[in-house]
Amino acid sequence: MELDVSKALLAQGNQFPFTAEVSVPPQDVVGETVSFDTVKLAGQYSVVEGTVRLEGELTTIAHATCAKCLAPASVPLALSFAENFRKDANEIEDEDFRYEGSKVTLDQLALTLIMLNLPMRFLCGENCTGGEGLDAYSQDIFKSSCEEESQTQRPFEALQRLLTKDEEV
Fold first, then answer.
1. What is the pLDDT of residue 121?
2. Tens of pLDDT, residues 18-65
3. Can you say whether residue 119 is alpha, beta or left, with left for phi > 0 and alpha for psi between -120 and 50 degrees?
4. Where are the beta strands (DSSP E) in 66-114?
5. What is the C-alpha separation between 23 and 107, in angstroms, rounded?
6. Contact 34/62 with Cβ under 8 angstroms?
7. Any idea which of 42-46, 109-113, 138-142 has the lowest mean pLDDT?
8. For residue 97, how many other CB atoms are within 10 A of its CB?
9. Domain spans of the chain?
10. Which contiguous run of DSSP H or E holds residue 39?
11. Phi/psi zone of residue 92: left (φ > 0), alpha (ψ -120 to 50 degrees), beta?
12. Cα–Cα distance for residue pair 84/102, rounded to 1 Å
């Protein structure tokens, strides 16, 4: 999606309202596929000395799998933004986005804002307790790996005991 900023280029310093919808394809985030509803951007833009400034709010819903029970989980995202676009911007080194002519591409802006604001993990609900496997793992985590019933191996646990033993002396 491209935003035509030619009005602002002709009337620098004036603000103009905009609304846009962007489709962001599903993304692989640490081996998990996260998909998104249509991303809606609304706000205003202006141009000062060749720099296009977009300010506004982005809204969408991110969909992934619950980290505890593996059921579908959704997280609404609503974030404010204020970003600059420059013709001479180096997107790898600068914090500004690049634009050419009188059009600003909103796809990379939307993707960047969404990815920077995703939660660390998705949960299907606040009170999700997970499945039986998670309960068994949570109970097992407190057992020492040196105990015969423990299914979890922690190779450095014996070293931790030696360190603790040395501190007691």
1. 87
2. 999 999 999 999 889 999 999 999 999 999 988 999 999 999 999 999
3. beta
4. 72-86, 97-98, 103-105
5. 8
6. yes
7. 138-142
8. 19
9. 2-116, 132-168
10. strand 39-48
11. alpha
12. 14
CA proximity to 122, closest of 30, 7, 13, 50: 30
- The residue type found at 151 is Q
Running DSSP on this structure, what letter comes out for residue 58?
E
Non-local CB neighbours of 105 within 8 Å, separated by 6+ positions = 1, 2, 3, 97, 99
Q: What tokens does 48 get?
A: 């000062």
Query: Residue 49: CA atoms inside 13 Å, Cβ hemisphere, count?
Result: 0
Token digits of residue 57? 């709010």
Copy the structure tokens of residue 78. Answer: 């609503």
